[in-house]
Amino acid sequence: MLNLAVTLDGFIEGPNGEIDWCNFEDNPGAESFFEKFLPTIGSIFYGRISYDLWGQYQPDESASASEKKLWASVHSMEKYVFSRKPRNDNKAIFIKDDIITAVNDIKSKPGKDIWLYGGANLITEFINLGLVDFYQLAVFPVILGSGKPLFSNIKNRVGLQLINVETSASGVILLNYNANS
User: Fold this and answer.
1) How many domains does the chain have?
2) DSSP state of 146
3) What is the value of pTM for the model shown?
């Protein structure tokens, strides 16, 4: 399951990597989407850069109790890192080769859903390999004009079936799609 925040114009980061537009303080009600999502997840798929940035992230002392709880939940999940440069890390399983087999083996295990966290290169690779079966996009009411697009270098058209749409008071919209097989 791809779950990601995106701007109205389709960016996941600003031109300098900024994600300040994606916060719950300025978007009340949006946190409820994430609070409902996290308990359904048992594993997270990261690319190496995203893992290095967020895989071990710890909120600072001044963070709210809810933010600390959120990160504790994220860090309790099994983590897989897809990287051409695997390393020894006792907090994640690194996968270098044969992504399709590895993903299908992980998917076949009993348990909760798998969160395809990203980054953009990993998401593109998964889409191009047909490995994304569900898209959940939180569209934030902001237009950046430039930055890192969510979808680029997609090789083939991907048909989606809208399952439902949820809204928040701040204007964040949660779009839920099944991928057409």
Assistant:
1) 1
2) S
3) 0.90
